[in-house]
Amino acid sequence: MTTSSPLLSARGVRVSFPGRHGAPAARAVDGVDLDIRSGEIVALVGESGCGKTTLARALLGLVEPAAGRVAFDGRPLEYSGRALKAYRRRAQLVLQDPSGSLNPRHTVYDAVAEGLRIHGYGGDERAAVAGALSRAGLRPPERFFLRYPHELSGGQRQRVVIAGALVLEPELLVADEPVASLDASVRGEILALLLRLRTELGLAALVVTHDLGLAWNIADRVAVMYLGRIVETGAVEQVLTAPRHPYTRALLSVLPEAPGEPVILTGEPPDPARVPSGCRFHARCPVLAGGEADRAGVAGACRGRDPGILDGSGTAQVACHWAHAGTV
Ligand SMILES: Nc1ncnc2c1ncn2[C@@H]1O[C@H](COP(=O)(O)OP(=O)(O)OP(=O)(O)O)[C@@H](O)[C@H]1O
Ligand code: SF4
Ligand SMILES: [Mg+2]
Fold first, then answer.
1. Residue of 45, 98, 153, 311 with fewest CB within 10 Å of its CB?
2. What is the CA(137)–ligand 1 centre distance, in A?
3. pLDDT above 50: residue 105
4. Can you tell me which atom of ligand 2 is nearest the CA of 323?
5. How far apart are CA 91 and CA 267, in angstroms?
């Protein structure tokens, strides 16, 4: 891990969505600190609805946090149209569904050139498009210029989307489930591409996924999110081989290659409009239900005291009273 100052830094970020018909607001992101350094790949993992996409959008300035702040390269984001447009050159979003993010009536060339045109690029557009396609592994690039999305495979479409993000030479990619819709074989190729881009271009990336295997293959660091908070973070080997938070353990236990019995979480599915008091995982926590937290003397804290916000610096941390009691 480097000690340089982070490229992107989020502190205390909160995003909520108003409830309908007087229902309480959904606290989709409920206090998150997260740093991403240049050239670092961070995987953000957690089950559906835990707030991954909302956090990713907040990091890109696509949604303004209700509290907290996001800074890029040491400067807090500004939310005027002009400031966001300038930010977009440096931090790009890659979406999960390549067919959804490509216009079927635009050629590959136009799809990739779009960003250059929006930003009034003054250089050689054709060379920039060819360079981006080539870096995304579509070679020779000229062969793809006049193709339409329907003429491409799923993997090639995802590469076009990545080329469209690369053409502006960003420093950070935020990839939301970048391979979820792809076949296993193509998935490996796209992951290899993301890793190569990090090595060749020094690109930092936040990869949002609910696939822990993907996190293992690609990331330096992992942040595990549960109900709007990061509950465990650290180097990928550490978190995935020696998880400390009961939620991380449960997520890992259901992987096909996991040793031992899978831990099936019981209790209500998490609802960001009704975040439990104390530890937000307490109603579903197998360590609390099984009496281990009680034996460690922390059961009261589990039910009554919020374990707090992890500091985002990238050092190994866990938001769990039981883990802090020295049990793991
Ligand atoms: N525009 C919105 N309006 C109201 N609620 C929303 C909106 N977007 C997200 N939410 C709610 O916020 C919570 C977090 O959603 P989010 O899409 O960030 O989760 P996620 O972790 O990306 O899930 P998935 O893995 O399914 O993509 C969910 O409860 C969701 O219903
Ligand atoms: S703080 Fe308690 S309830 Fe929360 S995860 Fe840890 S052991 Fe479980
Ligand atoms: Mg999502």
1. 153
2. 32
3. yes
4. 6
5. 38
Q: Is 285 in the pocket of ligand 2 (CB under 6 A)?
A: yes
Question: ∠ CA 318-280-216 to the nearest 5 degrees?
Answer: 45
Atom 7 in ligand 2: residue holding the nearest Cα? 322
Q: Where are the domains of the chain?
A: 8-18+26-225, 240-324
**Tokens found for residue 176:** 């939301």
Reported as a single tens digit per residue, the pLDDT across 181-210 is 788 878 888 888 889 999 999 999 999 988
Choosing from 52, 59, 226 the residue with most ligand 1 atoms within 8 A of its CB, the one to mutate for a pocket test is: 52
Q: Whose CA is nearest to atom 3 of ligand 2?
A: 282
Q: H/E element holding 34?
A: strand 26-36
Which residue's CA is the nearest one to ligand 2's atom 8? 285
Lowest mean pLDDT among 19-28, 72-81, 316-325: 19-28
Superfamily of the domain at 8-18+26-225: P-loop containing nucleotide triphosphate hydrolases (3.40.50.300)
Q: Is the pTM of this model over 0.90?
A: yes
Q: What stretch of H or E contains 117? A: helix 108-118
SS3 258: coil
CB-CB contact of 225 with 45 (8 Å):
yes
| Sequence-distant contacts of 182-189: CB under 8 A, at least 24 apart | 182/154, 182/155, 182/158, 183/154, 183/155, 186/153, 186/154, 186/155, 186/158, 187/214, 189/137, 189/155
The C-alpha atoms of residue 299 and residue 259 are separated, in whole angstroms, by 27
User: 226 CB under 6 A from ligand 2?
Assistant: no
Residue 39: per-residue pLDDT = 93
- Lowest-confidence pick of 39-53, 226-240, 253-267: 253-267
In the numeric block, which tokens belong to residue 117? 């045109």
The token duo for 136 is 């995304």
- What pLDDT, in 10s, does the model give residues 127-156? 999 999 999 999 999 999 999 999 999 899
